[in-house]
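Q: What structure does this chain adopt?
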Amino acid sequence: MRCPICLSLGLTVLICATTAQAQPPVAAPAATKPAPATAKAPAKPPENPELEAVRKSSLAFVEAFNRGDAKAVGELWTKEGEYSSETGQLSVGRAQIQEEYAEFFKANPKLKIKVEIDSLRLLSESTAIEDGRSFLMPTPPGAAPFSRYTAVHVKEGGVWRMASVRDLPVAIPAARRQLADLDWLVGKWTAEEHGSTSESVFEWTANKSFLKRTYTVKHPDQSVTSGLQIIGYSPATGQIQSWNFGSDGSIAIGIWTAESQGWAAAVRGITIDGTPTFAVNILNRIDDNAQSWRSIGRRVGDIPLPDTDEVILKRQP
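A:
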């Protein structure tokens, strides 16, 4: 939202009192031509009552969806209505549509929907067609940010219902598609190892095109190191890459490769004094609330370092 800038203009007026006789008469200001009246924009004509009723039906769908009310959603379709998903899967009949929405709400209790109607027009006294976009919130991993749809409404017994709804395919950004497998990392993770405690926070950024990780490590001597990691899809290499920036000035770039249980990242970096570094970091998903991490093949300059022990990170609420 843009915030208007308010300018305060202070005017100081100095009035010098003098006798009326000492001052010549002051001529009256010349008459000025009144400013022409500003023409008002013509009022927008009211919407056709039938189209207004169709809009209310679409709003009722949004409200029923956000309540997780499959029965109310089903009632908005005609008895023989059909729904076609963006993958082409067809559901026919109010009963089947209602059943499938019930299963969807059970599996996705936190999802909400928003609808933007781009076009709405009457084809006849009892038929209308609606084109628009629907937005699921939060956006499911790997999904497009919105879905386009076309809905055909028919008027039965004085009530507008959906006879056919088709979701249309929308191109999914390559970055979002490639990073979908890392969505489970989003959240806060902690670990303890050899007297050191670490905390990592993963979150989406830049329209879910990148994962951002901020981390801190407190060492036994109470010193603290921290840093920032950005994980994204590189169009140049066609691979997942990471960019690390340490609080000590070090920089590293990792190339990620998918493995059966997780990911392996070959990380090449450079310290603040210009010494090259290398390591392969192994990240495995144990379950939704635990992951393991270890670093192997480590080198600083020409000096090899021992592999680290496996560290278990646990998700925090």
